[in-house]
Q: What sequence folds into this?
């Protein structure tokens, strides 16, 4: 079909309008970038700025900014998709953020896509390296965070700010793929990362080493712009964590954290935490290996690997100015022991507090008055205590029977000094070692109208203040 002059004119007009709109968007992007960075102390340069054929995108290339204080920003391509006033997405390719200060971090990413941002520019005015944007979603590929300092890097979960705890440490963390949603400078609604690997300095009890993590996801990370101790997290889950460091070699199949207590319950669960004690002993100083090997043999029956499962669950129920706090905890060590703790505490809340809000943020019991309560703890023998007499007897140069007799005598002596309840607990542990019992259970009844601070002030006097029952089975 041939094109009539009228149709040709209409097509030319539409293409001209589209090209004009696209050119306007490209010009606005260049003007906004130059205004934003040109108004700050430092050096700014920008390469070619162009538009899409039909006005669906504006692209700025080779964006570089070096602030007067040494901060550096580099973006190979900055793309605004859709309408410039209300973009569908902003895409950054070849992103690099760093600081001249050797104590700070360097962040790079192959590609960053911000969906439905509130504006075409992601940087708050006057803060070139703080991308404090609000957006519907975020996707990052090839993310790398490197620390070049001498201390331990402690970074917020969104990767944007360092929390108190020391200067950035030497190390590197790489993330293959990251997605997030419901983003603002104050909160992250959800975040997921896959393919995480890192190396660097950990806490003193861990030391320097490397780790890998198959996936990490979190929900409800809030109050990021406030003090670190006010940051809240509703839920976290990680899978397939492997750590090899100076003082820790471990694998963890799964961990989940329910940190949102507003619904009346929360908890932490660890599944298949495997500690490679044999490898950790090899890494320990030579003078420490003998006692560590002794402890490993008792815990693992010579296998050198200890597998733990753990669950810590807590609940609250508001009853006017009173509340009922309950908790169930369990730690199970394969072929070693199982420890259970059940807590039920009726409490009176402070005057003038909203019960639900107060209980949802309750970190400890110092502000409440105990109205009695029950605590039950049970220690079950799964092999650990049966192995102890032989090892302990050999270390003392006596026979097993003589060791058990000495242990029984010491338990009675401690009971004479510290009270019959403590003596009963120690005697129950000897029963476990002697094979005369499979579980040791301790039940505590707390006094009414008591405060936690008063009970903790004199721990040795606690047995006299509590009602304690000790049973072995």
A:
């Amino acid at each position: 079909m041939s094109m009539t002059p009228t149709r040709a004119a209409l097509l030319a007009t539409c293409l001209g309008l589209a090209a004009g709109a696209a050119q306007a968007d490209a010009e606005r992007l260049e003007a906004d970038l130059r205004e934003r960075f040109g108004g700050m102390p430092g050096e700014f340069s920008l390469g070619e700025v162009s538009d899409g054929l039909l006005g669906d995108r504006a692209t700025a290339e080779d964006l570089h900014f070096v602030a007067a204080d040494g901060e550096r920003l580099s973006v190979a391509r900055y793309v605004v998709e859709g309408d410039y006033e209300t973009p569908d997405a902003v895409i950054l390719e070849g992103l690099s953020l760093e600081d001249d200060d050797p104590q700070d971090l360097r962040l790079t990413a192959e590609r960053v896509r911000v969906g439905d941002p509130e504006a075409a520019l992601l940087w708050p005015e006057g803060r070139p390296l703080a991308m404090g944007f609000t957006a519907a979603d975020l996707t990052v590929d090839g993310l790398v965070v490197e620390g070049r300092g001498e201390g331990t890097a402690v970074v917020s979960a969104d990767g944007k700010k360092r929390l108190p705890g020391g200067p950035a440490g030497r190390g590197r963390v790489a993330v293959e793929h990251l997605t997030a949603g419901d983003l603002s400078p104050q909160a992250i609604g959800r975040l997921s990362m896959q393919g995480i690997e890192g190396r660097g300095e950990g806490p003193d009890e861990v030391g320097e080493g490397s780790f890998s993590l198959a996936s990490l996801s979190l929900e409800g990370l809030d109050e990021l712009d406030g003090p670190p101790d006010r940051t809240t997290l509703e839920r976290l889950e990680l899978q397939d964590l492997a750590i090899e460091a100076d003082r820790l070699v471990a694998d963890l199949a799964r961990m989940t954290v329910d940190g949102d207590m507003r619904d009346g319950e929360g908890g932490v669960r660890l599944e298949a935490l495997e500690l490679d004690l044999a490898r950790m002993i090899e890494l320990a100083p030579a003078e420490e290996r003998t006692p560590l090997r002794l402890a490993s043999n008792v815990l693992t029956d010579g296998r050198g690997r200890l597998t733990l499962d753990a669950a810590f669950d807590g609940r609250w129920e508001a009853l006017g100015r009173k509340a009922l706090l309950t908790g169930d905890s369990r730690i199970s060590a394969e072929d070693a022991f199982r420890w259970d703790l059940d807590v039920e505490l009726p409490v009176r809340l402070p005057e003038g507090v909203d019960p639900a809000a107060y209980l949802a943020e309750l970190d400890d019991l110092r502000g409440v008055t105990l109205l009695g309560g029950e605590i039950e703890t049970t220690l079950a023998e799964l092999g650990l205590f049966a192995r102890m007499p032989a090892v302990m007897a050999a270390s003392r140069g006596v026979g097993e029977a003589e060791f058990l007799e000495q242990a029984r005598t010491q338990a009675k002596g401690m009971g004479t000094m510290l009270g019959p309840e403590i003596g009963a607990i120690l005697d129950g542990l000897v029963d476990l070692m002697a094979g005369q019992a499979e579980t040791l259970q301790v039940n505590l009844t707390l006094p009414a109208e008591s405060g936690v601070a008063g009970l903790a002030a004199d721990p040795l006097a606690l047995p006299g203040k509590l009602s304690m029952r000790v049973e072995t089975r």
